[in-house]
């Protein structure tokens, strides 16, 4: 009987060994499998090694361990690039550029189109020194009217002249008579914003008189010149574009 029991025990050993080996091969990996298999991986890793795959290949059953994948496996959206709130830059402050202070001009001396009855033909310039107005006669009984500065007492005059020359930003050479009165004046001044003749000049006949712009617009409507007729620069530019050389000028 003892011999028979021993033979039965020997018969069951291979079967148990096979079951244990199978269990070892199916331990699920990790530290327990490492212990039971004597430090040798089984399953996919061992198979991969037998096929020549690199030893560091990740097991097919190993779950990714990055935070994004862990969150995805639990139904949590993976991390994306951080979303930065759209913050608009504050608007640059507007710099308010104020014009240089200019003394007030009576609105009567601002340019406007007015009714004007005269026997002079359209295109004629009529300067009314009493009114301090210059009229450019137009067809249909109208005129463009501008304010002017006129000659101070002792320098006013009346008569008829013709525009013999037109100049943009003219140079200024004070006449000898003026230099005798004002020896401090420069003998020559190039055209430009600081020039007393302003932006434009209409020369009247062979005289020293002109209709010209001014860098002192607050003097329009006053009697301050040496016989010339001053206008605001913007007004003389407008007049300059409307008349031609040969235009008749009547001063009254």
* Coarse structural class: alpha/beta
Largest sheet: 9 strands, mixed
* Structural Rg: 53 Å
State the helicity in percent bands.
10-25%
The number of E-state strands comes to 11
Which residues sit in consecutive blocks of at least 5 with pLDDT less than 50? 1-11, 20-36, 41-102
Protein name: L,D-TPase catalytic domain-containing protein
Signal peptide: 1-18
Family: Belongs to the YkuD family.
Pathway: Cell wall biogenesis; peptidoglycan biosynthesis
Structural overview:
With 252 residues, the protein is an alpha/beta fold. The protein folds into 2 domains: 17-73, no CATH class; 108-251, L,D-transpeptidase catalytic domain-like. The chain has 6 helices and 11 strands. Strands 1-4-3-2-11-6-7-8-10 form a 9-stranded mixed sheet, covered by helices on one side. Strands 5-9 form a two-stranded parallel sheet. A hairpin with a 5-residue loop joins strand 7 (200-204) and strand 8. The protein is globular. The N and C termini lie far apart (162 Å). Mean pLDDT is 74; it is low at 1-11, 20-36 and 41-102.
């Amino acid at each position: 009987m003892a011999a028979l029991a021993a033979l039965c025990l020997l018969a069951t050993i291979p079967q148990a060994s096979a079951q244990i080996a199978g269990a070892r091969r199916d331990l699920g990996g990790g530290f327990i499998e490492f212990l039971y298999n004597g430090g040798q991986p089984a399953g996919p890793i061992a198979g991969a090694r037998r096929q020549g795959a690199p030893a560091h290949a990740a097991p097919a059953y190993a779950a990714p361990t990055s935070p994004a994948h862990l969150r995805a496996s639990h139904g949590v959206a993976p991390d994306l690039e951080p979303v930065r709130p759209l913050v608009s830059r504050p608007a640059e402050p507007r710099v308010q550029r104020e014009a240089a202070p200019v003394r007030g001009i009576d609105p009567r001396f601002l340019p406007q189109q007015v009714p004007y009855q005269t026997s002079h033909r359209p295109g004629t310039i009529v300067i009314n020194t009493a009114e301090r107005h210059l009229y450019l006669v137009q067809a249909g009984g109208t005129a463009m009217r501008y304010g002017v500065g006129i000659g101070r007492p002792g320098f006013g005059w009346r008569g008829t002249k013709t525009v013999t020359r037109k100049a943009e930003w003219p140079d200024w050479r004070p006449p000898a008579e003026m230099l005798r009165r004002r020896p401090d004046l420069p003998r020559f001044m190039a055209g430009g914003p600081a020039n007393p003749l302003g932006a434009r000049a209409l020369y009247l006949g062979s005289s020293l008189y002109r209709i010209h712009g001014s860098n002192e617009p607050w003097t329009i409507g006053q009697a301050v010149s040496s016989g010339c007729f001053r206008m605001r620069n913007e007004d003389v530019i407008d007049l300059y574009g409307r008349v031609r050389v040969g235009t008749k000028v009547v001063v009254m």
